[in-house]
Amino acid sequence: MHTAVVYTDSYVGDVVVQATLENQVTGTTEWADIATLTFTGNETTPTPVNFNGVFTHLRFQTSADPADTITKILVRN
Length: 77
Known about the structure:
The chain is mostly beta strands. It has strands spanning 2-8, 12-20, 32-40, 47-51, 57-62, 70-76. The radius of gyration is 13 Å and the shape is globular. It starts with a strand and ends with a strand. The mean pLDDT is 96.
């Protein structure tokens, strides 16, 4: 069980949790979508997402520019 918490400040868009089983991350690494969070910009508390699996690497992809609107993402494995 993994938990990620996204802290936002008026972010509007999606945050997609992606994972891979590959040992090294390169330009050809294949990523699988694990979970998607949709934000409207009205969130006032951190938004958690839980997911199961054994992964080598995780990453977070955004649909909009997260500069100054996503303050942090915490992951607990």
